Amino acid sequence: MRIGLIRHPKPLIAPGLCYGRLDIPPHPDVDIGAIAATLAGTKATTLWTSPALRCTVLADAIGAVTGLPPRADERLRELDFGAWEGQPWDAIPREALDAWAADPIGFAAPGGETGAALVARVVAFHRALGDTAIVVSHAGPLKLLAALLRCRPIDLFAPSPAMGVVDWVEEAR
Q: Distance (Å, rounded) from C-alpha 92 to C-alpha 159?
């Protein structure tokens, strides 16, 4: 199975803000068409996307180039950061960030989602993924999906994939 993982392009939001589930569009300076054009001629049979606007705009452009209709899936949404959403990262109390760092699987920001819930969503998506596909999503789900596809340990704090760049992964068996 060959899967193209692509993180949404740069979003239209000020740097340094927590924006996990906020539904914001891609930044107007991003050339969505150029990103989509890199997938022309792909052999993918399915195009999956997070329902977030910054993902669906790119997925629609990819669909126009590949002929694949985008299929939105809630399991591909970013981690829900609850009350932290829209807040500057440096305004979040240090104790809260330390608690998250100490237990990324069990911790949830106030009103948010645990890392375990994110892992469960992505594992369920991975099991249903099937054949060759393109997946447009966010840093959190894509880090997990890449680890699952490569049969590597899950690390919620692994480096984030670059925005708007396709990472083709051959699933390890």
A: 21
Is pTM, for the whole model, over 0.90? yes
Q: What is the CA radius of gyration of the chain?
A: 16
Scan for tokens 């981690």, then name that residue. Answer: 79
Q: How far apart are CA 33 and CA 61, in angstroms?
A: 6
Going from N- to C-terminal start, the domains of the chain cover: 2-170
Neighbours of 69 (CB within 10 A): 10
Q: What CATH code is assigned to 2-170?
A: 3.40.50.1240
**Residue 145: alpha-carbon gap to chain centroid:** 9
- C-beta neighbour count of 75 within 10 angstroms: 18
- The residue-averaged pLDDT of 143-168 equals 95
